[in-house]
Amino acid sequence: MTAVNGTATTSGELHLDMGLEAQVLRSHRWWDVPVPEVSVMPAVAEARSDYEKSLAEERWFV
């Protein structure tokens, strides 16, 4: 945390190293955590493209 003209500013980063094919336990919660937009890994770029296509087909159920 740094003070700038009397105000506090913060920034942070969360890194979870779970591997590319990690499986997570079933949950009744949904987090839309997008695939990174920029990566040197071709698999990540392909996953981002798939993610963007799926966003266009996303529907909200209320």
Description of the molecule:
This protein is α+β, with helices and mostly antiparallel strands and 62 residues long. It has a domain at 33-57. It has one helix and two strands, in the order E-E-H. It has a two-stranded antiparallel sheet with strand order 1-2. The longest helix has 16 residues, at 42-57.
Summary?
By secondary structure, the protein is α+β, with helices and mostly antiparallel strands.
Secondary-structure topology with pairs:
Layout (H helix, E strand, L loop, with lengths): L1 E3 L2 E3 L32 H16 L5
Antiparallel strand pairs: 1-2
**Biggest sheet, open or closed, and with what strands and sense?**
2 strands, antiparallel
Low-confidence stretches: none
Average pLDDT metric: 76
Strand order of the largest sheet: 1-2
Distance between the termini: 40 Å
Note the beta-strand portion: 5-15%
Query: C-alpha Rg, in Å?
Result: 17 Å
Order of helices and strands: EEH
Number of H- or I-type helical stretches: 1
Helix content: 25-40%
Number of strands: 2
Instruction: Report the principal-axis shape.
Output: extended
**Class per helix and strand makeup:** alpha+beta
Which properties best describe this structure?
single chain; alpha+beta; two-stranded antiparallel sheet; 26% helix
